[in-house]
């Protein structure tokens, strides 16, 4: 009967595996020797200092800050009263294609371009007309709606 061949590669892998196992056993014995089995609870505590860093010394009681529990806001804070802006804006039609039914209006206050669709028109408009309009959130940004000539 033929015997299993033990090649050089097999021998090297076996040596590596045994060496790794020995190193692991040494590390385990070292950890057990250095562990503090009888360590007190206070020795195991970790504190956080005023800067948010971990430390093994307890915090200084003189640096303690008193926080009023009622001053902590849980949830979303209430909106403060703001004066409402006039929803009606003024602008100029920079481009309008009647065959396709859409165009763009440039706001006279902030020079931003807003998309306008024929469904959002009250009056018929053409390029370079002065118009008043309101803004509404569309799928791709703000759209001009309820557009009238001025």
Automatic annotation (TrEMBL):
Q: Which residues belong to any copy of the CSD domain?
A: 88-149
Q: Which GO terms describe its cellular component?
A: cytosol
Which portions of the sequence form the region Disordered? 1-37
Q: Which PROSITE patterns match?
A: CSD_2
Compositional bias of type Basic and acidic residues: which residue ranges?
20-33
The record, for InterPro entries, names:
CSD (IPR011129), CSP_DNA-bd (IPR002059), NA-bd_OB-fold (IPR012340)
Pfam families named among the record's database cross-references: CSD
GO molecular function: any one? Answer: nucleic acid binding
Which protein, by its recorded name, is this? Cold shock domain-containing protein
């Amino acid at each position: 009967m033929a015997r299993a061949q033990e090649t050089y590669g097999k021998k090297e892998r076996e040596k590596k595996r045994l060496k790794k196992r020995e190193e692991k056993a040494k590390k385990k014995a070292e950890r057990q020797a250095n562990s503090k089995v009888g360590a007190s609870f206070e020795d195991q505590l970790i504190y956080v200092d005023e800067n948010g860093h971990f430390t093994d010394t307890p915090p200084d009681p003189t640096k303690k800050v008193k926080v009023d529990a009622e001053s902590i806001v849980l949830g979303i804070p209430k909106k403060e009263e703001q004066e409402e802006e006039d929803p009606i804006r003024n602008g100029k039609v920079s481009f309008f294609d009647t065959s396709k039914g859409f165009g763009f209006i440039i706001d006279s206050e902030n020079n931003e371009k807003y998309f306008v669709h024929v469904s959002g028109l009250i009056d018929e408009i053409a390029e370079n007309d002065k118009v008043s309009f309101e803004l509404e959130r569309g799928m791709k940004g703000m759209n001009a709606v309820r557009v009238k000539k001025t």
